[in-house]
Amino acid sequence: MARPYASSGDCGRGQGGARWAMGFTSYMDIALDEARAAAARGEVPVGAVLVSPSGEVIARDGNRTRALSDPTGHAEILVLRAACAAAGSERLPDHDLWVTLEPCAMCAAAIAAARIRRVYYAAADPKSGGVAHGAKVFSHPQSHHAPEIYDGISAREAEALLKTFFATRRA
Ligand SMILES: [Zn+2]
User: Fold this and answer.
1) What are the residue numbers of the active site?
2) How many whole angstroms separate alpha carbon 122 and alpha carbon 36?
3) What CA dihedral angle connects 118, 73, 59 and 135, to 10 degrees?
4) How far, in Å, is the centroid of ligand 1 from the Cα of 72?
5) What does the chain look like in DSSP terms, one character per residue?
6) I want to staple 65 with a disulfide (CB 3.0 to 4.6 A). Which of 73, 76, 99, 170 is the partner?
């Protein structure tokens, strides 16, 4: 767990005016890298990135339910925990979350509790999703906060990762 969450130079910081390069695809590319790393660990390939109001990547991780023996070890929960710990706050207003798969109901509830501003996700998850499917957490009046949702970004890549992972596991 001594993983450095601080940005390591791959997020475009300090490159003088290179912020434009950190558009849509790039944050999702980092999330996809984390998803690939998760698959390599034998975890379901889902990756997430937490971005500060100034556009800095403050946490990035992939699923670690097996490694941590923790059913709550989803990528979104891990980056929320890391970012909240770094910020010394249980809320992250004006922060954005990028994730390669539609968040489940548990993660959606945590995202609402943390007051995340925007959620960008790649693949839809009709089976376990809790945003556009199933519990549709943010659409309930009991949800304390509803982030703006942007879906479908790099969806095909994220779906391919998941498909390959589960096909390999079945084989
Ligand atoms: Zn989840």
Assistant:
1) 76
2) 14
3) 0
4) 7
5) -----S--STT-TTSSSGGGGGSHHHHHHHHHHHHHHHHHTTS---EEEEE-TTS-EEEEEE--TTTTT-TT--HHHHHHHHHHHHHTSS--TT-EEEEEE---HHHHHHHHHTT-SEEEEEE--TTT-SSSSTT-GGGSTT-S---EEEE-TTHHHHHHHHHHHHHHHH-
6) 73
Residue holding tokens 């969450």?
5
Model confidence pLDDT, tens digit, residues 109-163: 999 999 999 999 999 999 999 999 999 999 999 998 999 999 999 999 999 999 9
- Taking the centre of ligand 1 as the mean of its atom positions, its distance from the CA of residue 74, in whole angstroms, is 5
pTM confidence score: 0.85
